[in-house]
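Weekly puzzle thread! Below is a chain. First person to post its structure in token form gets bragging rights.
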Amino acid sequence: MSYTHFSPRFGLAWDPTGDGKTSIRAAAGVFYGSISGNEWNTQTNTQPFSTRLTFSNINQRTNAAGVPLGASLANPYTAFVGGTPFPYTGAFVNGGSAFVVAQNFGWPQTVQTNVSVQRQVTRDLTLGAAYVGTLSNGLPFGRDINYPILTPTATTGNVLSRRPNPGLGAITMLQSDQHASYHALQVTGALRMAKNFTMNAYYTLSKTMSSVQLHNNTTQGLAQNYSRLDMEEGRADTDQRHVFSMSMNFQPDYYNGSNRVLRGILNGWSISPIVKMRSGRPFTVTNGNIDANLDGVNNDRAQLVGDPHIDNPTPAKWFNTAAFARNAIVTGVATNGNSPRNFLTGPGFQAVDLGLSRDFRFGQRVKVRFRAEGTNIFNHANYDLPNASAPANGTTSTTFGVISSAGAMRRLQFGARLTF
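Winning reply:
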């Protein structure tokens, strides 16, 4: 618990016309977020409580029997059945990484603001628009503080010896020094006509940025080069520029005649469609399974050499693959990809869901509710992100820039509930 988290809140509401049909609202506040259990659980694997080490390429000083390398002792197993087991030739396991938490690790802070205008246009129609903004600071990010140093003889094979502490591999320190922002225009509309039709519509135009790729995992961090985090500023993984949704409920009376049977069958149905549309998610073009910046991690970005956008992207070719080149491994040269993080956008999402329900009464006390539901009833193909791993220079790839999977297809389900 902290007693220093001063969290003021401010809000106002104003009726400028005095007729109760127009409202202007504004609010702002400071909020402190909580930390997920991952951070605290991971700390228990750190000294002095315990040690969690993953060994890789540790420098060997003795053999597994504890005898210094190059030393020799008398062999007491000259007549040992099965041959002498001494000196033991087993190797140490690979090795050494650790996870620690910064001493000044703090709680994430968010400043939230919103300003909205709402107007009752007619008796049945209400419209509204709002600006919503969020600024987040102190976001947790795991940084490698034992990042290898570039030398004239640096290669992918001597990463461990180039670390400041060559006895360990990556030392991930959880720090609270990253930030993110969200700015949005939100438009709403509500229409209610008599008792048999209602409609609600929502549209959001937004932009979400982050200083690094937080990746929804607060105990780790993703960066092309931990010594150049200034190159990581870009769109957040959750940035979807346009989002639209609309829900309706329609209860039509198809039959107004005197036949009670037809009236009981055709009337009383409730039709509830939901329309959902949103822009695609951002993605990054990577350098393939190649460590061109010689830091021991294959998460480099590709080199941008042209315009990656095309006029009519298709699943067979979502972007201009010729606009990217894969950086080669060069001794003593750490090549970082110049393509930005999350600067391309994948396919959008479109779907219409539909619900159909009806109550059938038998006497005064028995009722059967029938309901049919369908998701993506038009079976629209919502494609996943394309393969964004660049092939080696001078070679071609049949999968680079290609989308090979899609989201859920149409699904129908039926149900009935008996009430008595």
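Puzzle host: Confirmed. Bonus trivia for everyone else. The longest strand covers residues 171-193.
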